[in-house]
Amino acid sequence: MSNDSIHTQASCADDFDPDTLSAEDAEHRIDALIRPVSGCEKVAVRSALNRTLTEDVYSTVNVPAHTNSAMDGYAIRSSDIPADDSTTTLTVIGTAWAGRPFHGSAQGNQCIRIMTGAKIPEGTDTVIMQEQVECTDNTIRIGPGHTQGQNVRRAGEDLGIGEVAVPAGKKISPAELGLFASLGIAEVKIARRLRVSFFSTGDELRSIGETLAEGEIYDSNRYTLHGMLARLHVESLDMGVIADKRDTISEAFQNAASMADVVITTGGVSVGEADFVREILAETGSVDFWKLAIKPGRPLAFGTVNDALFFGLPGNPVAVMVTFYEFVQPALRRMMGQGDVRPARFKVPCRSRLRKRPGRMEFQRGHLKLEDDGNLSVSRTGAQGSGMLSSMSTANCFIILPTASGSVEPGDTVYVEPFEGLV
Ligand code: AMP
Ligand code: MG
User: Fold this and answer.
1) Which ligand is nearest to the CA of 241?
2) Are 55 and 168 in contact (CB under 8 A)?
3) Can you give the pTM of this predicted structure?
4) Could you identify the atom of ligand 1 that is nearest to the CA of residue 316?
5) Ligand 1 centroid to residue 315 C-alpha, Å
6) Which of 78, 359, 394, 404 could form a disulfide with 126, with the two C-beta atoms 3.0–4.6 Å apart?
């Protein structure tokens, strides 16, 4: 018996397989092959939502443009703030509106009625909220306890002229649309849309609308992939179902690679007799790795076909989602030029008993919940079979169990990755 077969036997007992790559090593190997796509387009601000900014956007103005009031109230000179235990009476000499400044100047014991957003009048530097004054005719009385500069928004305090308002690589969210608008910017440069082609492999797969013969199932992976790709705002090219035939798959590889920056397939990547994906990847391109120490998703072929990156995901529907979120999504985001692409992880107590053997990193499906005491906890979402999409549908997070860890007892702390943080 060779050393290899000894190792293989050991893997049955403890889930350890010396030929597999850890999730961390796989991430590094993927990162090493990634080049951000070249090419950008200039679009109107609204059309830039969810896309990636390719150049720093500088502020050409101060935001806010002028020092203004943060409250409805009275603009006063700070030298008129009364000392402890006393009050001061000030004369109201006019009104400053947002967009309609007061053009005079306040002298000692004078103040100006002011609205939120109105320019701070000359001579004043402090705003007293209207709820904090006693008002009679054209005078107000204020007490102690105010500080110089309170309720005043300084010109440029949000952004100063020449500062980077939004850096290149930022995924544009509603906040950035507003920021561009506040700078008067009408168009921005964004990365061209990434093109991703995908197909399912499997003789047993039928598309919706077709009748199922004995042993056949509907292809669900192309639907989850459609959804996950749509949320990344890439151009996705659905190439349908490809039968488990070497020639057909080989042709589909070439076709898919000629049309896209990234090719994704599902199924046929394991060691069954109808699993051709890895072999054909080796023939038509190159295989970087194909086995990972994770569960679900042990078989995952990564490599290149011509100029396209290739991800051969497993066939099991949950494994497709896990491997997409953990490996494909960060890669696509990096290709779009985005920084900070890893989903957020944090630790919470687990309410369920989770069975696990050391040797593989596991991505179980969990439900994060806010307890009555204000702390978060997580429980698992029922049966965890890698074909059971319902466990994904009822989950709102992954529970991530590290390679070396064994089973988890209720009350133990585990890492979670909320789904909302994934896109
Ligand atoms: P495979 O890796 O091709 O052996 O597939 C593993 C399991 O996933 C098998 O039970 C397949 O029937 C199932 N499967 C493969 N592709 C799909 C798909 N596109 N939709 C639903 N189930 C699939
Ligand atoms: Mg198959």
Assistant:
1) 1
2) yes
3) 0.87
4) 8
5) 4
6) 78
